[in-house]
């Protein structure tokens, strides 16, 4: 009896243990819907979209794709005939089922059982959307089961219209083309709203097997499939027998065109400027500047790049300041001039009244994403830095006149004894003459009088990215920096002379908007007053003398009052000229990517020739 009680107590204990376990498991049991909602974010579907860049007139100049070339269109903008073509061929019961067509599934199981392999998929449009967005295209029953479960959940979270919209925008049309609208623009060079019934059915034939029905290489196959699509549309009542016959008889003319990218010199810069804009407005730039370790900076940089990818995929619209006529003119001029001297170079044109970048050249015969010399080439500016670092600060601090005398004789500081360009010394000359003739010894004397620290305090107000504390030495007065400046940076800094001594950064981006036209990002630059109007006017007078009787006489244009400053580095590795008129500031740099002497072309002044050609023929 005692043994029996012990046995009963043991059983009760064991039962209690299992009961508690079962109760605990019961608490952890979740429905399929709950598991799917936890594992897959299906309530907000994001399909990568193309982004677009526009010129100053609102004309689209570039499509930016992120892995998938897709022009996304909403349900209401999809032509009815396009919807009918896919409903007739892919899922005739689409508006009646809950994501899975059981009749089609049963039929597919029978066919596959007989063939002892997967011959038929029986996928609804919902299942195809799930496969495109969440799953792989693996042919297995495991993937098929997952597809069914996901489809059930997708139908709960989204309307039929939304699912059909996702489908028509996500299907693949070969040659890197995603979505029906992209296919229409790529293969027929027109909107889907302009397509005929025959063209709609022709495109609708491709996704079933994009490689087999590739319209560029297998047009006959596509045509046969098109006739089948039209037959299905006629069987479902979407079109009449006569419409079907007319569509079959219509000849298909393909006019293939790749995505738009009209001005690569400019659009690549805009993509770079967007990164700066996002970094500035979302705090990444300050975080990078405040980071103490390189690893931390690299981590923030990766986060910024990931954020940019998200923004590009969202389908943004960027309004730019590009002036298409000026851009074409600048690129043509640069290509011709640079080819003549077998050198590289860059040119930038800025509307200094509005602080907008209207044109730029990244180099001879530039291809997008190559090294862009206008904003990626950091070069020694030579004497082109003098008005910003030497003369501007000196005139502002001393209130000297342009007629004030300064010696052009030898000047040394701690063993640094540069000479003038032609090796001569000319005694006392006016500031205007010293500037116009670009005497190095005079510039160093003025730099010394103003003070190194004071002079650099003016330069720091500009956007020179790679001028650092290590550059605070006397050679900088003549353009000697560790890394240098870019042609864009130097041209941008010269806009101060056309704005009464006030500097505002020049931008290419006017606004970044979403698909609904809401502004996401735009620059909010505040102007900085560098020096008084009187100082600025003196600088303008001296820069006029550079062209009329100084180092840039070859750039003089009769009847026009352009002003500017030349710059030449040691051994003629770099040739610069930055000049401005009533409306535009234009900068030109000529050199070689691997610094080498250009002395063999120095006598022809190619930098002045290119600059003069740009500004004298600049379109209105």
TrEMBL record:
GO biological process: cell wall organization; peptidoglycan biosynthetic process; proteolysis; regulation of cell shape
Sample GO molecular function, one term: penicillin binding
Subcellular location(s) of the protein: Cell membrane
InterPro entries in alphabetical order: Beta-lactam/transpept-like (IPR012338), Glyco_trans_51 (IPR001264), Glycosyltr_51/Transpeptidase (IPR050396), Lysozyme-like_dom_sf (IPR023346), PBP_transglycosylase (IPR036950), PCN-bd_Tpept (IPR001460)
Residue stretches making up the Penicillin-binding protein transpeptidase domain: 345-580
Domain Glycosyl transferase family: 58-234
Assigned GO CC terms: outer membrane-bounded periplasmic space; plasma membrane
Catalytic activity as recorded in UniProt: Preferential cleavage: (Ac)2-L-Lys-D-Ala-|-D-Ala. Also transpeptidation of peptidyl-alanyl moieties that are N-acyl substituents of D-alanine; [GlcNAc-(1->4)-Mur2Ac(oyl-L-Ala-gamma-D-Glu-L-Lys-D-Ala-D-Ala)](n)-di-trans,octa-cis-undecaprenyl diphosphate + beta-D-GlcNAc-(1->4)-Mur2Ac(oyl-L-Ala-gamma-D-Glu-L-Lys-D-Ala-D-Ala)-di-trans,octa-cis-undecaprenyl diphosphate = [GlcNAc-(1->4)-Mur2Ac(oyl-L-Ala-gamma-D-Glu-L-Lys-D-Ala-D-Ala)](n+1)-di-trans,octa-cis-undecaprenyl diphosphate + di-trans,octa-cis-undecaprenyl diphosphate + H(+)
Transmembrane segments: 6-23
Superkingdom classification of source: Bacteria
Keywords (A to Z) from UniProt: Carboxypeptidase, Cell membrane, Cell shape, Cell wall biogenesis/degradation, Coiled coil, Glycosyltransferase, Hydrolase, Membrane, Multifunctional enzyme, Peptidoglycan synthesis, Protease, Transferase, Transmembrane, Transmembrane helix
Protein family according to the UniProt entry: In the N-terminal section; belongs to the glycosyltransferase 51 family.
The name this protein goes by in its record: Penicillin-binding protein
Record organism: Salibacterium salarium
Taxonomic placement: Bacteria, Bacillati, Bacillota, Bacilli, Bacillales
């Amino acid at each position: 009896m005692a043994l029996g009680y012990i046995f009963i107590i043991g059983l009760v204990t064991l039962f209690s243990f299992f009961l508690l376990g079962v109760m605990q498991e019961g608490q952890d049991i979740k429905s399929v819907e709950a598991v799917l909602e936890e594992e897959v974010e299906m309530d907000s579907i994001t399909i990568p979209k193309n982004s677009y860049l526009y010129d100053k007139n609102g004309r689209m100049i570039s499509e930016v794709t992120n892995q998938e070339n897709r022009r996304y269109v909403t349900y209401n903008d999809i032509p009815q005939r396009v919807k009918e073509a896919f409903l007739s061929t892919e899922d005739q019961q689409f508006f009646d089922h809950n994501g899975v067509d059981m009749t089609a599934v049963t039929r597919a199981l029978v066919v596959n059982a007989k063939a002892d392999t997967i011959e038929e998929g029986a996928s609804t449009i919902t299942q195809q959307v799930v496969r495109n967005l969440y799953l792989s295209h693996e042919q297995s029953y495991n993937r098929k089961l997952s597809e069914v479960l996901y489809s059930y959940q997708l139908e709960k979270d989204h309307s039929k219209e939304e699912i059909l919209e996702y489908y028509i925008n996500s299907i693949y049309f070969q040659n890197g083309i995603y979505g029906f609208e992209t296919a229409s623009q790529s293969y027929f060079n027109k909107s889907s709203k302009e397509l005929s019934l025959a063209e709609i059915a022709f495109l609708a034939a491709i996704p079933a097997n994009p490689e087999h029905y590739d319209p560029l290489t297998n047009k006959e196959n596509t045509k046969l499939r098109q006739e089948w699509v039209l037959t299905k549309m006629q069987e479902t009542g979407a079109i009449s027998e006569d419409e079907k016959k007319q569509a079959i008889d219509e000849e298909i003319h393909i006019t293939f065109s790749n995505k738009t990218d009209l001005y690569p010199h400019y659009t690549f810069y805009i993509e770079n400027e967007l990164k700066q804009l996002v970094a500035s407005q979302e705090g990444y730039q300050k975080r990078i500047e405040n980071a103490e370790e390189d690893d931390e900076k690299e981590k923030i940089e990766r986060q910024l790049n990931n954020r940019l990818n998200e923004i590009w995929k969202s389908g943004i619209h960027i309004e730019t300041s590009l002036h298409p006529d000026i851009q074409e003119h600048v690129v043509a001029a640069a290509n011709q001039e640079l080819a003549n001297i077998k050198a590289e170079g860059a040119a930038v044109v800025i509307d200094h009244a509005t602080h907008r970048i209207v044109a730029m050249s990244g180099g001879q015969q530039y291809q997008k994403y190559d090294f862009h010399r206008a904003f990626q080439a950091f070069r020694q500016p030579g004497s082109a830095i003098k008005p910003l670092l030497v003369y501007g600060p000196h005139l502002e601090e001393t209130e000297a006149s342009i007629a004030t005398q300064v010696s052009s004789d030898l000047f040394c500081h701690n063993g640094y004894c540069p000479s003038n360009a032609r090796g001569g010394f000319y005694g006392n000359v006016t500031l205007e003459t010293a500037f116009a003739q670009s005497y190095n010894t005079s510039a160093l004397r003025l730099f010394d009088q103003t003070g190194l620290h004071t002079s650099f305090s003016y330069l720091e107000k500009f956007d020179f990215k790679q001028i650092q504390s290590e550059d605070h030495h006397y050679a900088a007065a003549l353009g000697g920096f560790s890394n240098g400046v870019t042609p864009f940076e130097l041209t941008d800094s010269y806009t101060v002379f056309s704005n009464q001594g006030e500097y505002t950064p020049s931008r290419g981006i006017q606004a970044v908007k979403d698909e609904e036209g809401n502004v996401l990002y735009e620059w909010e630059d505040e102007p900085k007053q560098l020096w008084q109007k009187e100082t600025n006017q003196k600088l303008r007078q001296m820069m006029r003398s550079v062209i009329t009787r100084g180092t840039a006489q070859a750039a003089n244009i009769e009847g026009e009052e352009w002003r500017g400053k030349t710059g030449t580095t040691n051994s003629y590795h770099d040739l610069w000229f930055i000049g401005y008129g009533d409306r535009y500031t234009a900068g030109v740099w000529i050199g070689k990517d691997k610094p080498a002497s250009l002395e063999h072309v120095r006598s022809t002044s190619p930098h002045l020739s290119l600059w003069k050609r740009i500004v004298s023929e600049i379109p209105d």
